[in-house]
Write a structure and sequence with these properties.
Blueprint (H helix, E strand, L loop, with lengths): L3 E10 L4 E9 L2 E7 L3 H4 L5 E4 L4 E4 L1 E6 L4 E2 L2 E2 L4 H10 L2 E9 L6 H12 L6 E7 L5 H12 L4 E5 L10 H14 L2 E5 L3 H13 L6 H6 L2 H18 L3 E3 L5 H12 L4 E5 L1 H5 L2 H4 L19 H12 L4 E2 L32 H10 L5 H15 L17 E11 L18 E11 L2 E5 L2 E2 L19
Parallel strand pairs: 1-4, 1-5, 6-9, 9-10, 10-11, 11-12, 12-13, 13-14, 14-15
Antiparallel strand pairs: 1-2, 2-3, 5-16, 7-8, 16-17, 17-18, 18-19
Helix pairs in contact: 4-5, 5-8, 8-9
Length: 467
Amino acid sequence: MSSRTVIRGGLVITASDEIHADVLIEDGRVAALAASGTPAAEAFAAERTIDATGKYVIPGGVDAHTHMELPFGGTFASDTFETGTRAAAWGGTTTIVDFAVQSVGHSLREGLDAWHAKAEVNCAIDYGFHMIVSDVNQETLKEMDLLVEEGVTSFKQFMAYPGVFYSDDGQILRAMQRSAENGGLIMMHAENGIAIDVLVEQALARGETDPRYHGEVRKALLEAEATHRAIRLAQVAGAPLYVVHVSAMEAVAELARARDEGLNVFGETCPQYLFLSTDNLAEPDFEGSKYVCSTPLRPKEHQAKLWQGLRTNDLQVVSTDHCPFCFVGQKELGRGDFSKIPNGLPGVENRMDLLHQAVVDGHISRRRWIEIACATPARMFGMYPKKGTIAPGADADIVIYDPNAEQVMSAETHHMNVDYSAYEGKRTTGRVETVLSRGEPVITEREYTGRAGHGVYTPRSTCQYLN
């Protein structure tokens, strides 16, 4: 039995077009689009009709950077794949790419299998995996080839966190050389972790223990230095590079310079760097711990340069780095020692709305909103046009979005499994109304109608900017 749905009367927005069109969905995919009111559109017949008059019809968001159930700092990220993907759907995101973790002394395969086990039958929306490479050796390098063949085409390395995820320059170079051969994309956490550890030790010795010092020791210059070094290592290896969670204007300048040189270098930023700042880290009574993440929040003047980077395409993607820890019992592990505060913020539910607010505020256009939140991440990580657009043949991952609804972000009303909101009290214009994942309603007029297990694993091809 085929099932058909038609979405009528909305403004369909993709990265390339805006058109008042009706959308016909058949068997989980977009079957056709036709300008509203035309005979072609009138001929669309379906069992279910969704009235999108006065609303936007946009592709489901693709969040290419999440950490569900991540073990970190002696605890675990508080969102499971079930709670995290449900919250993502509430926020208009229909695909996540999470990070499977290789532990030192273990194989990539063991890490990937462990993450498959966490996610399988638990996800409300579709998902894929990147692979964190913590232990570069000959076996690991061979495994990278196998993973690319089966659709895990991106590998994250860390210049930060010595003793946990850290790779030295030689290990990074070897992995980059391998990715240059197998078509994989290296994703880099670019901070000079060795130097930062010295500054942490010195700050604590001076009695500087409050959350705000987390931002002061993880200096913007050490993000820029690591970004520069990663770019040059990638250049030596002849490999593409994707720098995650760029927060500092000095790091944006390094990316812009590399791209002006014609290098295959890409950059991602996150809503927290666009909307929050060191003012939040300095909030009294340990409230600042809620905003501890790495790279850290920067002084407000960095925000303008990040927005500029998004407009000039020196930054291409906005992901969340969603890695939530509850204030009570988790962030509190760092009372009296900022270096023990688990690093991470909740945000998978807020991204699409915050970026729509950026449209309202005049930072970006509507099509750029869809480009940085849907189309580019799908292309970057080998899922386009199955994901990230509304076009015949694409998965029917579609959001009916009310651009005029107003909301106040709050832990009282969000669906992430965390006891605070990083955007508590923030008023935004625009709200998700209905969400389809492969044609199935996950959110129906602000009611959750999805289920754990609907979401399926999505193997990916290689980065589509390099093909």
